[in-house]
């Protein structure tokens, strides 16, 4: 199993997440197959020291819908971090960058985030 460590200190959230999602898929491996689960482990360190601008903290919104009438919920990034933390923010960001297929849930289990 190949292990990658990404240092998030001073980097932007999206840049770190896109790098992690590409590594999780195994895009850098010579044996890349889009339908196979690669033997890769990705670890993100210093997640609490990621560079987030004040504008992003106040204006970025995460939306979800339950499917029921009136079930539309919206949370700002600052509130999301206060409630769920940086680990969940990174996990959710990388998860949304992975393809929506049956491998997605197995790929995200290969990701670990440390503050």
From TrEMBL:
CDD domains: Ribosomal_L13. SUPFAM superfamilies: Ribosomal protein L13 (SSF52161). The keyword Ribonucleoprotein applies. GO terms for biological process: negative regulation of translation; translation. Keywords: Ribonucleoprotein, Ribosomal protein. InterPro entries: Ribosomal_uL13 (IPR005822), Ribosomal_uL13_bac-type (IPR005823), Ribosomal_uL13_sf (IPR036899). Pfam families: Ribosomal_L13. GO terms for molecular function: mRNA binding; structural constituent of ribosome. Gene3D superfamilies: Ribosomal protein L13. One of its GO terms (cellular component) is cytosolic large ribosomal subunit. Belongs to the universal ribosomal protein uL13 family. This is 50S ribosomal protein L13. The lineage of its organism: Bacteria, Candidatus Tayloriibacteriota.
């Amino acid at each position: 199993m190949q292990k990658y460590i990404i240092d998030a200190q001073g980097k932007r959230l999206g840049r770190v997440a896109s790098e992690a999602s590409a590594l999780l898929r195994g895009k850098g491996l010579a044996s890349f197959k889009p339908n196979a689960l690669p033997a890769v482990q990705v670890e993100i360190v210093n997640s609490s020291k990621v560079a987030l601008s004040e504008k992003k903290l106040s204006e970025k919104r995460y939306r979800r819908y339950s499917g029921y009438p009136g079930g539309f919920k919206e949370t700002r990034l600052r509130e999301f971090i206060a409630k769920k933390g940086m680990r969940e923010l990174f996990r959710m960001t990388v998860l949304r960058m992975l393809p929506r297929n049956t491998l997605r849930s197995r790929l995200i289990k290969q990701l670990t985030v440390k503050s």
